[in-house]
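Much of what follows relies on a compact textual record of a protein's fold. A record is reproduced here so that you can trace the correspondence yourselves:
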Amino acid sequence: MSQQISPEDMEDIKECFQKMDLDGNGFISGSEIGEVFRALGSPMPGYQIRELLRKNDRDNDSRINLVEFTAMFQDMKDDHIGQAFRKALNKKEGIVAIGGTSEISSEGTQHSISEQERFAFANYINSTLEKDPDCSRMLPINPNTGALFKALADGIVLCKLINQSVPETIDERTINKKRLTAFTTQENLNLALNSASAIGCQVVNIGAQDLKEGKPHLVLGLLWQIIKIGLFADIELSRNEAIAALLEEGESLEELMKLSPEELLLRWANFHLKKVGITLTNFSGDIKDSKAYFHLLEQIAPDGSKDNVPRIDIDMAGLYEKDLAKRAERMLEQADSLGCRQFVTATDVVSGNAKLNMAFVATLFNKHPALTKPENQEWNVMSETREERTFRNWMNSLGVSPHVHHIYGDLQDAMVILQLYEKIKVPVDWDNRVNMPPFRAVGGGQMKKIENCNYAVELGKEKAGFSLVGIGGLDVFDGNPTLTLALVWQLMRRYTLNVLEDLGDGQVAGDDLIITWVNKTLAEAEKTSSIKSFKDKSLNTSLPVLDLIDAIQPGSVNFELVQKEDLTDEDKLKNAKYAISMARKIGAKVYALPEDLVEVNPKMVMTIFACLMGRGMKKV
């Protein structure tokens, strides 16, 4: 190293290294860097994380050891990423160090979590699930202690919370609720994790044991993902056409639809604040003085013009309170009058906790959007298809960056697709073949995105062996739905079949191998059902799937809950919901939806059986 490090600096470096090394294994991975930045409210784009790793990983093992970290800490003084890195690590507000719960981390490693988040999430769960009789034993949770982690340890509250965010994701009949044992608790946690993955949560580095032990940084990270999905559900044009009121001059509806929920929230807040001459650029520093919040509450408060919605007057006197903490408290009292005092305390506002303040603003939007759809304008706003939603959730569950909100727009530069290739073990030449963001708005930026898309198609044809006849990079850039989904489907199919690697006595994992295994397993368990193909009409009853689940884990399926004869469409859907949740409960990471079984969608049916085969062969 070029310069000597004082003992004091070395202690600081070691402390920072321990903060970043979340799993306590002596190395820092890209996912750990991303997790810490997210926890600190300063998320770093994936390409910047990769740049940081590539620049400092001197032994090319895709992770950073203490020696490399020390050199990086010295070298990053003038580097723009490095400056942000140091700044984030030096943040102290709301971050507490706690001992880890794993064997490694209990030997001195510390994890950083936010007490503010623990407090906010506990209160959110208390208010959201307070009337649910199945949760009465665990609630209310004391937000001032670690009771939150114990309340989630049996999986019941997590399952309920997932259904709050995305209704009917989990069939309630599959949740173990009484006389819990270590085994039935494990089943609940499997069900929660696999269902969270199915709605787009990243759970790659989280296991049932982590939740059972209450590892705070993992539990809080998962909770935030689940809560955020629910909060953002209606912040999109296809679900709320009044958002069209946020169109700016010269902007197309297509451009508005491409905005992420976070961007739409900022657009919405500024739409109302424009009347008082205030503009927000973030939900951290810009809201610390509560002025924007006071004016936003005043603008969105009901004025009594709508039937059955009484007028609510916002008391603006607190705006002139000089003490920022007291001013924030006065503001929150007014938010309470709108039924929106949720997620933040006065301390969270004054400290500018970006995550919790964004959740607070999302609550304001959901309860009082105060938007009116522009008159005399008709738009054909297409809702997301079930297939698009399944693919999007699959991609997000793998932790791609950026997060995919709108499948075609967010794949336009191919960065997500290229990350997916890595997930299916197809090497990507990031250094020589990939144009990294940020891209210029026009001209050269567009060409660089198309070059990335061309490379993505090339990888599919030449390295992955995909069938991509008639598909070019320009089709992906243009967001051609049919051709883009054809590529994404083959990526998902390969990812699913990779679960079955090395199975079948050297045979290539494919449809025939899976069908043969399914029928053999059913026969050995003395089940009467069988399948001829993934188009088999008998699959619309879900009985072959349920029989297979029971063959893999005998006694797991309660067949008294299953309709077997003279099935109506409603009966078929009930069976399918039960089958999908049961598959997840026994440990199969299924992304398909109940409707895929009822309609016998062969592509998604294949993924169900492939995941069950992997589970049956003890590979997942």
Observations:
- The CA atoms of residues 245 and 375 lie 10 Å apart.
- The beta strands are 95-99, 110-114.
